[in-house]
Amino acid sequence: MFYREAGDFKTSYREDNQTFPIRFDRMGFYAALAVAYGVIPLVIDDYWANAVFVPFLIYAIAAIGLNILVGYAGQVSLGTGGFMAVGAYAVYKLMTAFPDVPVFIHVLLAGGITAAVGVLFGLPSLRIKGFYLAVATLAAQFFLVWLFNKVPWFYNYSASGQITAPDRSMFGVFVTGAQTSATAKYMFCLILLTLVALVARNLTRGTIGRKWMAIRDMDIAAEIIGVNPLTTKITAFAVSSFFIGIAGALFFSVYLGAAEVGEAFGINKSFLILFMVIIGGLGSIFGSFAGAAFLVLLPVFLKNVLVGGLGWPTDLAAHIELMIVGGLIIVFLIAEPHGLAQLWRVAKEKLRLWPFPH
Amino acid sequence: MPDQLLYAMEVTLNGLMAGVMYALVALGFVLIYKASGIFNYAQGVLALFAALTLVGIQQGQVPFAHVINAITGGHLESFGWQLPSILAIGLTAGVMVLLAIVIEKLVLKHLVGQAEIILFMATIGLAYFLEGFGDVMWGADIKTLDVGLPQGINETLESVTDGLFGYGFFVDNLDIVAALVAVALVTALTLFSQYSKQGRALRAVADDHQAALSVGISLRFIWVLVWSIAGIVALVAGIMWGSKSGVQFSLSLIALKALPVLMLGGFTSIPGAIVGGLIIGMGEKLFEFFLGPLIGGATENWFAYVLALVFLVFRPQGLFGERIIERV
Hints:
- The complex is a heterodimer.
- Chain A has 15 helices and 4 strands.
- By secondary structure, chain A is mainly α.
- Chain A has a domain at 45-266.
- Chain A has a two-stranded antiparallel ribbon with strand order 1-4. A two-stranded antiparallel sheet of chain A has the order 2-3.
- Chain A is globular.
- The mean pLDDT of chain A is 85.
- Chain B has one domain: ABC transporter involved in vitamin B12 uptake, BtuC, CATH 1.10.3470.
- The longest helix of chain B has 34 residues, at 3-36.
- Chain B has 14 helices and no strands.
- Chain B is globular and about 60 Å long.
- At the A-B interface, helix 6, helix 9, helix 12 and helix 14 of A face helix 3, helix 5, helix 11 and helix 14 of B.
C-alpha cells in the first residue's frame, strides 16, 4: 500500500475537509510526529540543536505567521523583523517583571502584545495596498527597532543596551538561560510549533481562512459578496503577528539568550522569513515548514562544503551563499511561483496515478 | 537673525541636498516601474554594484581575485594600472548595459505576465544575487571612490552667507555637484522620453503593453533599454554616494530610503521622485534638528517611512501618481 486514491471517493463533508485525505500521508505525518517527539529529543546534542533544529522550529513558527498574512490574506509585509523584536522585548520585560509565572505563559502573552502592535500597523492596510503596503510596513520595521534601541526602559537600563534572557524553568527543567539543555530547548520550541501549526491549519480551512483568501484574490469582489475588509485584514494582521511574536520571543529567550535589537531583528530578518514563505510556497502550511527547513539547512550545508570541505575563507562562503539564495529565489519564481509546496502537490498527483498514468 | 533660525535654514539647505541624493536613486525606480510595471527592489544594489565595478576598473583590480586565490592558493591582487576616471566610467556604463541584457535574458523574459508581487520578489532575489556577486567579484572591503569630484565645504556660499547673516552655512561641494547632476539627468531623461523615437516607444509600453506590442514595438528591446538607463542612473547615484561615504554595503540600503521617496512622489512620476526626495530629505533633517534631541536622536532611520505611511493613508497614490482605479 504505497499510495492510494485515484478518484473521488468522499461521501461526507468531514472526509472532504481532511488535512491528509490519503492514508499513507496520514501515516507519514504521525511517523514524523513520533520521530520529532520520541526519537530526536533522545539523541539531540548542542551542535544539532543550535545549528539546525532550534532555528528551524522557530523560523517555521515565524514563517507560518508570515504565510498567513502574505500567502493567505495577500498583505505583503516587510516588518517581520520588527514584530519579532516586539515579541522578544515583550517576553524579556515579562520574564524580568514576573519571575514566578511560567515562561510558557510569558511567550503566549508576548505573542498577544505583538498581535496588538501588529493590528496597529495593520490599520493602514485598509487604505494602502500592494507595494505601497509593503513599503509602509518598513515603517514598522525601522520604527520598532529604533524604539527598542533608544528607550532604555525596554532593555531595563542595562549598560550594554542588550537584553539577556534570565534562567527560567518549567516543571523543574531549565528552558531559558545558560544552563538549558539541548533537549529542553528543542522540546519547548517543538511543543509551541505543534500548537501554532495546528491552530494555523484549522484557522485557514475555516470561515476566517476563507475570508482571508477571498480578500487576497480580489478585495473589492470579496467586499461586495459580504466579506468585511476591516475585520478580515485586521484578524490576519493579529493572528500573523501573534505567531511572529511567539517566534521572536523564542528566538531571543531560547535560541540566542542575549540579543541586540538591530543585529538580531534587523531588516534582513524580515527578508529571510519572506524568502522562506516564497520558497516554501505562498498559502501553504507545509510550505512554511519546507521553506524554513530549506533556508536553515542551506547555509549549514554551504558552510560545511565551502569552508569545511574546500577550505575557502568564511567571508567568501558568506558571499557565495548570498548569490545562491538570490539565484534560487529567481529560479523558484520562474520554475514554480508556488514554491516547494506546489512541487510536493504535483508529485502527489503523479503518485496517485502511478503506475498507470493515462 | 536669531541663531536658531539660521541653523534651521542651514539644516533645510543640507536636507534639500540630501533629498537630491535620494531622488537620484528613486529616479531609477520610477523609470523601470513606468516601463515594465516592475517594482525594482534591486536598484540600490545596482548602484552598489556599479560603484564597486567603477572602483575595480579604475584601480585595475583583478575580478574574482578572491575566488581564484582561494582555489589556486595564489596571491592575485591587481593588474597594476590606474585608469583615468572618464574611461573607467565609460567602461562601467558598458558593464551596466551588459548586465541589463543578461537580466532581461535570464530573468525578466521568463516572468512575463506574472503577478506584480512575483516580479517584485524576483527583484529582491536579484538584489541578493548581485550583492553577493559584487562582493565575490571585487571583494567586500570598504573602498574609497575618487573620480575627481570636488569635495569639502563650499567656500563661496560660506562667505556669501557670512556676509549676509554673519554666519557661514556649511554645504558640501559634492552635494552641490549632485544637485546639478540630478537636474541635468532629469532634463536629459525628459527630453529623451518626450522627443526621441525610442522615448516614444517607451511611453507607449508604459501606457499599455498589449497595444504597444500590436503596433510593432519590441517589448524586450524596450526592457533592455530601460534597465540599461536605470543601470546608468544607478552608476551616477553610485558615484555620488560612493564619493560621499565610501563604497560599502550600506550603499545598497539607500535604496530602502528611496522607497518612501517614491511613495510620496508616486511610483509613476519623474518629477514626483525629485519632489518626494526633497520633501523627505528636508523633512528628516528638520525633524532630527527640532525633535531628535528630545526623543533620543537617530530619527532619520524611520522618519521617512512613518511620514510616507501617514501621508499614504490620506492620499494612497502619492503626490503625483496616477489615480488608482479598481474594478471587479
